[in-house]
Design a protein that fits this description.
- By secondary structure, the chain is an all-alpha fold.
- It has one domain.
- Helix 1 packs across helix 3 and helix 3 runs antiparallel to helix 4.
- The protein is globular.
């Protein structure tokens, strides 16, 4: 990695962020390294010539994102299913996260 560091800020629904944090914690990886790897996959190191992703490259990147979101959805569904019945607020929060992830996946699959 070069000596230049850049801070990136994302605006994402809190349920999705929570699911992403849990998934990273479950897999023992940092959120920063996960985002960095994802960004490097989508935007390879820039050269002097500006590169433009082709449609197949964009489709591949979107499919990788869908795969990542499916993994997060699977983890969140498992979390939701393991919540005892007396914790209805947690169940509702987890259900909203699952619904948001399912909707995001459907929209991405529809786009490509």
């Amino acid at each position: 990695m070069s000596g230049t560091m850049t801070q990136v800020k994302f605006t994402i629904e809190t349920d999705i962020v929570s699911a992403f944090k849990r998934r990273c914690a479950d897999e023992g990886v940092s959120m920063a390294s996960t985002v960095r790897q994802w960004m490097e996959t989508i935007h390879p190191a820039r050269t002097t010539k500006k590169s433009v992703l082709t449609r197949p490259q964009r489709r591949k990147a979107v499919l990788e994102i869908v795969s990542l979101l499916n993994g997060i959805l699977e983890a969140e569904s498992g979390y939701r299913d393991a919540i005892p019945e007396q914790f209805t607020q947690r169940q509702e929060d987890a259900e909203r996260a699952c619904e948001a992830l399912t909707e995001a996946i459907a929209l991405l699959e529809e786009a490509f």
